[in-house]
Amino acid sequence: MILPITAYGHPTLRKVAVDIEADYPELQSLIENMFETMYAAVGVGLAAPQINKSIRLFVIDATPFEEDHPETKDFKKVFINARILEEKGEEWPMGEGCLSLPGMNEEVSRQPEITIRYLDENFQAHEEHYKGILARIIQHEYDHIEGILYVDRLPVLKKMLLKGKLRDISEGKVDVDYRMIFPRLRKKIR
Ligand code: NI
Which domains does the chain have, with CATH numbers? Predict the structure, then answer.
């Protein structure tokens, strides 16, 4: 089932999400629905706050990057109750988009290496080290469960210049071909 995606300005995107237990209701179908929603919107990652659930769950399928980044081959993973334990290295910029911020793509600086501890969809624990594009995708999704959006990481001046665009998104004044929940909807877009 494809779920509607929360747009910029939605309060759930600003909450620090909470851990879940293995008996979380219908967790496996929620995970399936999140992948389905992400694929339908042509994203490589989706975090639970983006489907209006403030829980520490995100899914990633990085395989669309395979041609330029071979390490993304077969990288399809579920992250539950994740904690980034360490980030290191010199920050590097890369363009990022977000399904909650349609029509935008901005260069974001992040550290290149992370160590993360998380549970997979079977509640098996993992501690793994990632770098480069995989680290970046994980950092972006991890930010979502911490209530952070990539625009928060832009220089102040850049963020000021984007203010109107961000307001338009929150009001639904944006061209988007997937279902969204606009927190300050002013007019019907279709
Ligand atoms: Ni995002």
Answer: 5-183 (3.90.45.10)
